[in-house]
Every structure is written in C-alpha cells, then in structure tokens.
Design a protein that fits this description.
With 511 residues, the protein is α+β, with helices and mostly antiparallel strands. It has 17 helices and 21 strands. The chain has a 7-stranded mixed beta sheet with strand order 8-9-10-1-11-19-12, sandwiched between helices. It has a 6-stranded mixed beta sheet with strand order 14-18-13-17-15-16, with helices on both faces. Strand 2 and strand 3 form a beta hairpin.
Length: 511
C-alpha cells in the first residue's frame, strides 16, 4: 500500500444570481447552526434512495449519513474502519472475510444500536432493490451472515483480494428494522443512520443538508455543525459564489479561473492529483465499435497532448491504460501505447472498410472539468481520419442514466475512485458486469480473476498489469487523462480535497 503515500506530497451578481437559492426554512436553520460550510458541487441530487445513484460525491454523503464499514486514508495510505473496527481474511479460506463492528454506535434520533443484521440487510438490499445502481459494489459477495451481534461474515464467490475496494467509501449501512417496517418510504421519512452527520433535507436536483451528529465517537468540536451541498454546475457561478462568500468550498475550479481565486482575499486554491480516469467509452453493442480497428483508430486520432495543453491548461496527466502514477499496479511499461498518429488512424479505418462511418459522440456539460470543450476539440480530429461525427450534449442525469443502461454507443466520461482500478475494471469490462460498454474477453476475465485471487501484492500487481495490457490492445475504452482535483476553499475552513472526490465534513475544521 506504500505506493499511495505519495499523495501526501500533493495538496497542501448575474451569474451568482443564477445559482440555486435556499428556501427560507433551510436558510433559517442554517442561521441557527454554530458553523456552516456550504459546498458547491456539480453533480445532481436525484433520489432519497442511498443506493439509487453512483457518483463520488453522493457516495461520500451517504457514507457520512448512514456510515460505511470503512474508508481510505490518503495520509497514511491505509484502509481504516468507520463502522467496522477491524477485519481479517480467513487464512485457510480466502473466500471468507470477517468484519468486527464497533460496539455501542447509536443511530440518529432513535438511538438504535448498529448490529450485524443491518450490514446483512444493506448488502442484500443493494443486490435486490430494483432502484439500486450499486450492484457492482457487492458483486463479488456470495453470502453475508451474522456470526454474532457485532460480527459479520462475508463469503465471496471467488477469492477477492480487493474486496475493500468494492466496499469501503462505497457501501453505506441502512437500518433493517426501518426498511422492514416502512419499505421504500424509510429512505424519505426515516433517513436515520450511524454516521458522523445527520440528513436534514434533500431538494431533488438542488441540494442536500447535513447536521453534525454530536454522538459520533470521533466527531470534533472544530468540524462544521452544518454542511450544505448545493448543485451549481456552471464554473463561473461556483467561483463567483465562493468569492462572494455564499459558499465556502467550490468543487472543480477550472484552470482558467484559478488565478481569479488565488488573487482574491479570503480564499485559496487546493490542488491534489486525481484518481478519476477520463476516457472515451465505445459500446460494442453498436457498430462500428464491435470492430477493434475502429476503436484503435480513435486512440490514434486524438491529440491528447494538444488538448491537455490548450483546453485543460496543463492541469492533467496523460494515461496509458487504466492506471497512472500513484494508482495501484501502475507501471510505465504497459503496452501498447497510443500516440497521436492520424495517418495510422486513417489506415486502420481503411483496413476495416469504415472510412466515412457516421458516429454519435456524447459528452456531459459542466459535469467534468472542460468536458464539452475537450470533446469539441476531439470532433475535428476524428473527422480528419475518416469518421463523420455528430456531437450530442444531453443533461448529465439523462445521459448517465442511458450510459448505465448501455444505450450510448460512444461517450466521454470519468470513472472515479480508481485508487485500485480493479473494482472499476470489473464494473466496466468483466463479462457480465454493467452494460455500459458491453465488452467481453475471456483472456481479460481470466487475468482479472487471477489478480482478484492473489493476496501477495507483487504477484497481484503483475496480474493486474496483464489485464491493463489486454485493455490497451482491445481499446473498449480509450483512457485519456486524469484532471487534477482543484477546489476553491475559504480561509475560514481548513480543508484539503481527497483525490477520490469524497467530501467529508470530518475532514474539515473551522478556523
């Protein structure tokens, strides 16, 4: 795990009127709080169901409300417990994991103690809830059972050395008794958890409001009493709101606005390396993406260095495969590597008989840093090598819903939480995973399975690198770059963003 320790070296109005206004009731409650941190984020708030969305920020919010078994500490480079105090793998049977829960954790409002039954319920609900989009997080699990009140036994389908990647910072624990009594209404009417913050309000599409749980064992007086997450997707509006003091943290400050923040009084820039991979996904259900030559042509057609220098203002690092420096099992020796070669791209399309093929390319707008601008720069590059591209820019919520159903042929997206890319690779590329790309290759499945079954870190890394190379050759997705995590932060708050975009109130202290 020492490979991750390098993260410690990093880190340390008309438009504003268009931002979403708080209702009078919420504003009044915010005024009553001793300390409030308002955070502008780009993602939507689409549901009360904690398993009904799968974005990095939402995972973080639900982990703080309901509680997750554990999280990843970027300072120490280790997984640490949250609701679980410890865990181990059975030495004789690597399919068996034992998690020991913390004793005496009291639920918000009603004080019900956390038990193994709640963990069992949550994992099983993620599998069975028709509205759940987080099935990949528990996909390796064959069964879950209670050894006793505070001990959970998880049996995986096969040896899964990376099980914590699937569970920690991802799977939140909801109350079995509340769901048994109220069903789906429990999410809306009784959103009670064991985490360090309590859910007070959601306005779909606009905001979420949390209040500090004074009974959380590790809560600090200096942590903010209230956190308000506001959706402000426009870059200028987020920065303007920060400079005006309407918010204290602005997520994803674009490079061209960084100096404006740096020069302003009372605020500053916080930058850390990202573990979110940006890529072009090519769904093999649709032509011409069922042809490897077409996918390879895309990889040679894109001048990534030019886009990174101009559109991304140098605030990105190139990817050759799914892992970059600082990510698990990274090596500079992954082959093949794709460099800008439009002549080669045209030759591949000619060989495939696909010159002049029409393709539809989707991108989000203001969901990722410079998303539309980046893809607009790609369109003439793809046209120049023989594709005929039509660009589409749907709303993120609409577009992502279609991607998750496998209904988008060609799209620009990011995949976060790729500290260890293995869980993401399972989700996107393993046979039988999500339909987002519909890739299937027995050789890749075999390599990923072997890596998952290997508990010796050096050997596991070699096996993952083999899986990386297979993806590089087949190009079901063309990995482009990682964009630096850049946040604007008020000087009233001591806060450094996480590379995985989890925004935890427990990471913040008020000055």
């Amino acid at each position: 795990m020492t490979i991750f320790r390098r993260f410690r070296t990093f880190a340390l109005s008309a438009i504003a009127g268009a931002a979403i206004a708080l209702s009078g009731a919420v504003a009044a409650r915010a005024a009553d709080a001793k300390t409030t941190v308002t955070i502008a984020v780009t993602n939507d708030f689409s549901t009360w169901n904690p398993y009904g969305d799968s974005t990095a920020v939402i995972y973080g919010i639900w982990c703080e409300v309901y509680g997750c078994l554990g999280t990843y500490d970027f300072e120490t480079g280790e997984y640490v417990g949250m609701l679980a105090k410890s865990w181990e793998v059975d030495k004789k049977d690597h399919n068996v994991w034992i998690f020991h829960l913390r004793h005496g954790l009291k639920r918000h409002v009603d004080g019900k103690e956390l038990t193994a039954d709640d963990v069992m319920h949550s994992i099983n609900r993620i599998k069975s809830d028709k509205r759940s989009v987080q099935g990949f997080t528990v996909r390796p699990i064959k069964s879950v059972s209670a050894v006793d009140k505070y001990t959970v036994k998880i049996v995986t389908k096969k040896s899964t050395a990376d099980l914590l990647v699937f569970l920690f910072d991802e799977v939140c624990i909801t109350g079995k008794d509340l769901y048994d009594k109220y069903g789906e209404k429990a999410d809306h009417d009784h959103p009670l958890g064991w985490g360090p913050y309590m859910l007070k309000d959601i306005v779909i599409g606009q905001r979420m409001v949390l209040e500090k749980n004074p009974n959380w064992p590790d809560i600090q007086k200096s942590n903010p009493d209230r956190i308000i997450y506001r959706r402000i997707k426009e870059d200028e509006a987020r920065v303007t709101a920060l400079l005006n003091g309407e918010i204290q943290i602005a997520q994803l400050v674009p490079a061209h606005l960084m100096k404006r923040v740096e020069d302003a009084p009372g605020v500053g820039i916080r930058t850390v390396p990202s573990i979110e991979d940006m890529f072009l996904g090519m769904n093999e259900k649709f032509k011409p993406w069922d042809n490897k030559l077409a996918r390879q042509a895309v990889a040679y057609a894109i001048n990534r260095e030019l886009i990174m220098k101009t559109v991304l203002h140098g605030q990105a690092s190139i990817l050759h495969g799914p892992a970059g420096e600082g990510q698990y099992a990274y090596t500079p020796d992954i082959e093949p590597k794709y460099h800008y070669d439009p002549k080669k791209a045209l030759e591949l399309l000619q060989k495939a008989g696909l010159v002049g093929t029409h393709v539809d390319l989707n991108t989000t707008v203001d969901r990722y840093m410079y998303d539309r601008e980046s893809v607009e720069a790609m369109v003439p590059m793809l046209d120049a090598v023989g594709f005929k591209v039509t660009l589409h820019t749907p709303e993120y919520a609409t577009e992502f819903a279609m991607v998750k159903k496998g209904q988008v042929p060609f799209y620009y997206h990011g995949r976060g939480t790729m500290l260890d890319p293995s869980a993401a690779l399972s989700q996107y590329f393993e046979t039988g995973g999500s339909p987002r790309i519909r890739y299937s290759n027995p050789a890749f499945d075999k390599a990923l399975l072997a890596a998952r079954s290997e508990f010796d870190p050096p050997e596991r890394k070699k096996l993952l690198q083999k899986a990386y190379s297979i993806l590089q050759e087949d190009v079901p997705a063309f990995f482009l770059w990682r964009i630096n995590v850049v946040y604007g932060v008020s000087n009233k708050v001591d806060y450094t963003p996480r590379p995985n975009h989890r925004i935890y109130g427990t990471d913040m202290t008020m000055k």
